[in-house]
């Protein structure tokens, strides 16, 4: 996996991502302490609202990132977003009102919602070989997981030396370092974009791409399955550990660590696994494992806690982390396979927005159900969502899913550059190639044939 770090461009981009993630982890801890200073016992409500604000920013702003990437050089755009995040991190220690926290969090997450899809769209251009790109995806997943495990420990160590206000300074330094690394990196020149229309039309194209491509519709359903299982872990772990099992706050970290450990181990194994099996063959079984695990959690929480049941829950959390990683990590390969190079920013921005829309639905569902119906019913309902989403993905994503498709263009004139290898047919011009939705291919072939091609 580490062999991709020999590529100087990717090494700098990955390091920029890693230091920015570390800074974000420090900010998460510092924000919790700041909220408690301002709101006292209502801090959880403040943080819950901040989480909702984060998801709203991701869903609303991310689709515009692809449009901005067409107009602003990617290196400039990513560096500007890093500088914006650094400035907001410096402003956070000076807030005195709850509404100021929410405003700055929205601005911070809006900048992240612009940076991340552009970064994701740049990596496959830096690493065009599929095996290298797969390793990069696993390494990126590993960075996210390790950040969630080690940033709290780093914050705890720093808090023994300084007050929490200084953690925001660490966040700022992380974003400044990320900006410096991005500026020092020479990125490949992106393919020219021929699409017309304003920013909103370009942003809408990414969503239309997902709707028109069967495997991308399946990917969205799989993201919903992961969001349902992940919401149980991220929202209800503290209730499960301290309320049901009566364990200490330290056990909450242990449970979340088990979830992260399962994801880390899977990220390490995926590059080798994906050399032997298709994305579909890895992602669908992992998605179907999630409802089974949640059903076991429902059974565990419906009975009186025992010594063995605590370890069973740790195993279940590790299994959820592993299955979620096996679904999420190959998703970048699916997007890349389904998108023309000039449209990668729009496609990754659409996935970023739509997948976080799934979390925006499952987060409150996990919280409301746990408070009103108990943990067992919460696990059953979220498991039902996982099962329905995995079933929908299996139905939408054809088992035989070739990249090259034969299709007909009934309305392109003879001599059109796109028809260079086409042959006359009764209803137009027929040829086959790697098929994606673009300005010449508006709909997915039905039975191997397209309808009229349209510009986008």
Annotate the secondary structure layout.
Elements: H1 8-39, H2 43-71, H3 74-91, H4 98-126, H5 130-159, H6 165-183, H7 199-212, H8 214-244, H9 249-276, H10 279-301, H11 307-328, H12 331-337, H13 344-373, H14 375-396, E1 404-409, E2 423-425, E3 428-434
Antiparallel strand pairs: 1-3, 2-3
List keywords for this structure.
456 residues, mainly alpha, Growth Hormone, Chain: A, three-stranded antiparallel beta sheet, 14 helices, 3 strands, disordered C terminus
Overview of this structure, please?
This protein is mostly helical and 456 residues long. It has three domains: 1-188, Growth Hormone, Chain: A (Up-down Bundle), CATH 1.20.1250.20; 199-401, MFS general substrate transporter like domains (Growth Hormone, Chain: A, Up-down Bundle), CATH 1.20.1250.20; 402-456, no CATH class. Helix content is 73%, strand content 4%. It contains 14 helices and three strands. The protein has a three-stranded antiparallel beta sheet with strand order 1-3-2, with no helix packed on it. It is globular and about 75 Å long. Mean pLDDT is 83; it is low at 448-456.
């Amino acid at each position: 996996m580490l062999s991709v770090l020999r590529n100087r461009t990717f090494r700098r981009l990955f390091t920029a991502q890693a230091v920015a993630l570390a800074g974000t982890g420090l900010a998460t801890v510092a924000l919790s302490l700041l909220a408690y200073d301002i709101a006292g016992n209502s801090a959880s409500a403040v943080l819950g609202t901040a989480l909702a604000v984060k998801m709203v920013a991701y869903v609303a702003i991310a689709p515009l990132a692809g449009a901005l990437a067409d107009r602003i050089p990617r290196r400039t755009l990513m560096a500007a977003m890093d500088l914006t995040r650094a400035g907001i991190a410096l402003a956070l220690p000076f807030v005195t009102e709850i509404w100021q926290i929410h405003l700055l969090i929205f601005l911070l997450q809006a900048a992240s919602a612009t940076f991340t899809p552009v970064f994701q769209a740049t990596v496959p251009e830096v690493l065009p070989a599929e095996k290298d790109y797969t390793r990069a995806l696993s390494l990126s997943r590993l960075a996210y997981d390790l950040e969630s495990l080690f940033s709290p420990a780093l914050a705890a160590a720093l808090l023994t030396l300084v007050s929490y206000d200084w953690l925001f300074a660490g966040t700022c330094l992380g974003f400044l370092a990320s900006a410096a690394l991005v500026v020092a990196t020479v990125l490949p020149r992106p393919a020219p974009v021929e699409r017309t229309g304003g920013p909103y039309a370009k942003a809408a194209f990414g969503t239309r791409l997902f709707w028109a491509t069967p495997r991308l519709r399946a990917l969205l359903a799989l993201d919903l399955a992961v969001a349902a299982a992940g919401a149980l872990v991220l929202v209800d772990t503290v209730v499960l550990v301290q309320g049901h099992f009566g364990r200490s706050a330290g056990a909450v970290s242990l449970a979340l660590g088990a979830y992260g450990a399962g994801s880390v181990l899977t990220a390490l194994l995926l590059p080798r696994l994906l050399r032997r099996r298709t994305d579909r063959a890895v992602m669908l079984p992992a998605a179907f494992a999630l409802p089974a695990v949640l059903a076991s959690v429902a059974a565990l929480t419906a009975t009186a806690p025992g010594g063995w049941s605590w370890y069973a829950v740790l195993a279940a959390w590790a299994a959820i982390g592993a299955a979620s990683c096996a679904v999420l990590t190959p998703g970048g390969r699916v997007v890349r396979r389904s998108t023309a190079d000039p449209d990668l920013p729009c496609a990754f921005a659409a996935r970023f927005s739509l997948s976080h829309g799934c979390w925006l639905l499952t987060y409150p569902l996990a919280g409301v159900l746990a408070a009103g119906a108990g943990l067992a019913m919460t696990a059953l309902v979220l498991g039902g969502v996982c099962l329905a989403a995995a079933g929908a993905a299996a139905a939408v994503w054809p088992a035989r899913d070739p990249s090259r498709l034969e299709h007909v263009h009934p309305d392109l004139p003879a001599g059109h550059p796109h028809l260079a290898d086409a042959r006359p047919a009764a209803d137009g011009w027929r040829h086959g190639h790697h098929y994606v939705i673009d300005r010449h291919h508006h709909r997915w072939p039905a039975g191997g044939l397209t309808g009229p091609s349209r510009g986008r």
